[in-house]
Amino acid sequence: MSRHVAVLMGGWSSEREVSLVSGAACAKALGEEGYRVSEIDVDRNLAGVLEELRPDVVFNALHGRWGEDGCVQGLLEILGLPYTHSGVRSSALAMHKPSALEIFRCLGIPCPEGRVVGIDEVNRRDPLPRPYVVKPVAEGSTCGVRIVRPGDNAPPIAADWPYEDDLLAECFIPGRELTVAVMDGGALGVTEIRPHGGFYDYEAKYTDGKADHFVPAPIHADVYAEAMRLAEQAHAALGCRGVSRADFRYDDTAGEPGRLYMLEVNTQPGMTPLSLVPEIAAYREIGFGALVRWMVEDAGCAR
Known about the structure:
CATH class of the largest domain: Alpha Beta
Distance between the termini: 25 Å
CATH topology of the largest domain: D-amino Acid Aminotransferase, Chain A, domain 1
Shape: globular
Number of domains: 3
CATH architecture of the largest domain: 2-Layer Sandwich
Strand content: 15-25%
Order of helices and strands: EHEHEHHHEHEEEEEHEHEEHH
Number of helices: 10
Structural class: alpha+beta
């Protein structure tokens, strides 16, 4: 193979550091698979850099705003460069959580009850009965997520809140954290994540030893199958391409089988050494090199 692959990483979102790790891992693996690889730490001159390099394919390892929300995808469409992961519309829909949840609810996919609220409203009075969750409407990696519990006295949103003024308030779902990897429209498997303390926040996701992963998830067989089905349905409903990851809460507090709740779909899931999609792929005997090679060969423009 002599195809030239440009790996986009870094950028300037709140997930920059994670993206750098994902991109470096993917670039290394692609080089080992025989591709000619150029690593690009993305800045505002990305179009000029790509015009000069003229790669055959772009591997988009960006996470968060501008890289995962349809912006870079639109640029790559304009440049006519095939790229990995989902296209403009599906990326934008998945990144904007209220829009994706509205689609899921229309299809009967169970989701937590919630609504979009402003910072002033949340800090003035509870928008939902406690406990509830507040999160940015368009961020990833659990950035900005807060659980507001009975007895909390501090305002849910601090004065130095770095995200936009609108946020999503949702009912807190007790139980377990599950995730499903989808590849080429088919679910690969279900993982249960058990953080060692608190909830599955940014630190637990990206710090070794902060959470345990169980693949396959030790849950009721019917729930396992249902999680796979719902992940495939959500992937298709958003028009996703390539690899995606669907995140769920599983309320089994009254015993199994319990009830699943779809939280979100990630159109560009992490590809770090601690990431969930490579782990699930490995469970299905798809090595990391084979995974990223498939993603490059699946790359394209809008279709």
